[in-house]
Amino acid sequence: MRASLLQIAVDDDEPVNSRRERVSSLVRQVAERERPDLIVLPELWTTGAFAYESFAAEAEPLQGPTYEVMAKAARDAGVWLHAGSIPERAGADSGAGDALYNTSLVFSPEGELAVSYRKIHRFGFDKGEAVLMGAGSELATVRVPEAVLGLATCYDLRFPELFRGLVDAGAEVFVVPAGWPARRRSHWSLFARARAVEDQVYVLACGTAGTHAGVDQAGASVVVDPWGEVLAEAAGAEEEVLTVDLDLRRVAETREQFPALKDRRLP
Q: How many domains are contained in the chain?
């Protein structure tokens, strides 16, 4: 399976609608140039992960403007597209009141929504996303032709029990979009490798470039194999595309050669 990670730059001066169109065009260009099976975008690339004051103003229903643009991009490009995440406004008819969620969207090559995932662990402690967004409650996986993808988002990366749950649900590749701050870049790389090693999976961790509401982003998108080896990593915090070929047989081979998962004892 070939995967392309699009480390999108978020500029506060670029209107959201303009960025949607620019990114959808980039998806098509990368699909034509790199011929990937899967394209991955970062977290909250429409607004910026730290642009808290924009969450409510730019929030959209699940099948809103970003959904429509990304569904068409996936269909035009003929690829599986993890479209990063959006600030989702659930709506009164959802049973969740008018709550906001940090929601990831994955589209099939036909442009159909294959799965969505509401971020479970919200960053900010007693401010920011932690108080502005609702918490998701369900793990999410999706089967693509060559593998089962397990979905997580940014701050989720610090909580290994979530990823154990994804492994138990059959995940062979973790896809982790993020808006990770530059000042904690070393943690980002460390956690991506740790999740790969302990769960014996591939990790596709796609970060944003640029600056969100004054917070410099780490960039540093990275692809890690089931042994914890870095297969590719973004050179810095600028907009960049990483394309990597994944041999999915390595997941089963790694688990057979070093069957640590079989020795789990705690429930």
A: 1
